[in-house]
Write a sequence for this structure.
């Protein structure tokens, strides 16, 4: 396959702040609709079924789902890095081989996640001390949800491929379409057919399947080097090893977040259904912050990866400064919005006075500290885009996972209330951000060999 030209690639050539924002906003809108996609289940079951159903779809079950799915999504980020570096270097053949390896990994990984997810659902929920009144609906939701893991993985991998080559618009369009489909199906299965949490799960997997099909069709119809040919889907050893080398630490990093969140959720479960429902509702409000930070993280990973592959290291550093500035301003604005209007937004999910009171306390404690998180997202994304994902994993392991575990087992028993539990978030964000800032300043993350410069290997 002939090499593509990178001359017109604006990520490696255009004005940095402008190109970052042009790439960022479609991702932001995409993550907004992803959040709306995830929130739809909570809003509909919370209003039409009850607070037990709200806790079932967004409490312990969501935490376990995020652990398994988040690990694979982190693993697949290795594919985004590999493809973005080869695309930035203009190597069309390697782009194509990496794309087909990535899709094969999505299919295989999704199948494995389906089996594991269904098998461990019951044990995991009981191990987390899930309240008895939400145990059964949580189990139903999880088992149905995991039946749709393969299309979910294909959509995430396909979107990652498109973003790796600088196309952040089409993943947005596909997500918007599937989001509205999910809303319609949710209303049909939950409100009309009255299937409860099972209906919400069925609506989710059907809409995920549609989004996966749209993404695969887009990859199959392109004339560029990342075109997907179904007969060529297979593992290419060299690319698979590179994807795992970069993606496995990212997947473990995601899993560490989820493991620490499992401990948090277990502690929250002990306070009863009202607190679980309040934590679920707060998670939906908090999602505004995470969707924006995630968009910045995806943007800087692709931006750093393509410029690193093109050998433009100064441009990588400049993009980090710009992205940190944008993220800082955004986090302050979001803190003000959530603190000021969080109580009003809560009414979308529940009218229960006790649930609202608990949730408002959580908002006052966590929302003002959003800015302490930004270095983790931006600097780890930069390092990963340049092929360095091991040290960020270690920093996250210590700063987030280990410190949260220590806090839960030491501090919470001394002062056993919800505020002590949730304080673990701003505490560990601050410490981990400082660790990332020190590592970034030393510059070792930029002393890696570009995968795009490696000699080709026989496949």
């Amino acid at each position: 396959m002939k090499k593509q030209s990178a001359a017109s690639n604006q990520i490696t050539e255009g004005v940095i702040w402008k190109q970052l924002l042009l790439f960022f906003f479609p991702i932001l809108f995409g993550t907004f609709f992803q959040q709306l996609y995830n929130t739809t289940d909570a809003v509909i079951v919370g209003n039409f079924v009850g607070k037990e159903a709200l806790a079932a779809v967004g409490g312990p079950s969501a935490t376990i789902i995020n652990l398994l799915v988040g690990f694979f999504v982190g693993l697949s980020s290795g594919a985004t890095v590999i493809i973005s570096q080869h695309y930035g270097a203009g190597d069309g053949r390697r782009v194509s081989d990496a794309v087909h390896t990535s899709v094969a990994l999505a299919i295989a990984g999704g199948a494995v996640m389906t089996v594991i997810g269904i098998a461990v659902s019951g044990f995991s929920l009981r191990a987390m001390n899930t309240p008895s009144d939400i145990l059964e609906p949580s189990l139903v939701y999880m088992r149905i949800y995991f039946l749709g893991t393969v299309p979910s993985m294909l959509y995430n991998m396909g979107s990652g491929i498109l973003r790796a080559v600088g196309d952040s618009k089409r993943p947005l369009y596909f997500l918007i379409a599937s989001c509205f489909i999910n809303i319609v199906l949710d209303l049909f299965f939950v409100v009309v057919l009255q299937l409860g949490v099972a209906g919400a799960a069925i609506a989710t997997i059907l809409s995920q399947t549609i989004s996966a099909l749209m993404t695969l069709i887009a990859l199959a119809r392109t004339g560029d080097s990342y075109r997907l040919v179904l007969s060529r889907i297979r593992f290419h050893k060299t690319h698979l090893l590179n994807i795992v080398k970069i993606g496995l630490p990212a997947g473990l990093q995601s899993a560490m977040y989820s493991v620490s969140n499992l401990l948090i959720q277990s502690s929250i479960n002990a306070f009863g259904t009202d607190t679980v429902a309040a934590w679920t509702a707060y998670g939906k409000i908090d999602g505004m912050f995470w969707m924006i930070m995630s968009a910045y993280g995806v943007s800087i990973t692709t931006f750093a990866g393509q410029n690193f592959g093109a050998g433009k290291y100064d441009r990588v550093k400049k993009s980090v400064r710009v992205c940190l500035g944008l993220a800082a301003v955004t986090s302050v604005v979001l803190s003000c919005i959530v603190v000021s209007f969080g109580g009003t937004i809560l009414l979308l999910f529940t009218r229960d006075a006790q649930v609202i009171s608990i949730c408002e306390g959580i908002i006052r404690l966590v929302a003002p500290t959003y800015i302490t998180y930004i270095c983790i997202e931006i600097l780890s994304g930069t390092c990963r885009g340049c092929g360095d994902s091991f040290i960020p994993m270690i920093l996250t392991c210590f700063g987030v996972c280990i410190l949260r575990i220590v806090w839960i087992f030491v501090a919470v028993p001394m002062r056993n209330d919800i505020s002590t539990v949730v304080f673990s978030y701003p505490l560990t964000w601050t410490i981990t951000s400082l660790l990332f800032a020190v590592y970034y300043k030393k510059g070792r993350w930029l002393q890696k060999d570009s995968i795009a410069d490696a000699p080709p290997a026989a496949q």
